[in-house]
Amino acid sequence: MSRKSHLNDFKMNAEGKYIYTGAVYTLQNHKQAGVRLGLLTAFAFLSVISSGFINAAGLNNTFYVIIPYILEVVCLFTLCWNTVRLLWARGKFREYVYSPVKNRIPSASLALGIFAGLGFICSVLFMVLHGFETKPVQCIIYLILKAADITLAIIIYKYFPTLIWEQKN
Question: What pTM does this model have?
Answer without folding.
Answer: 0.84
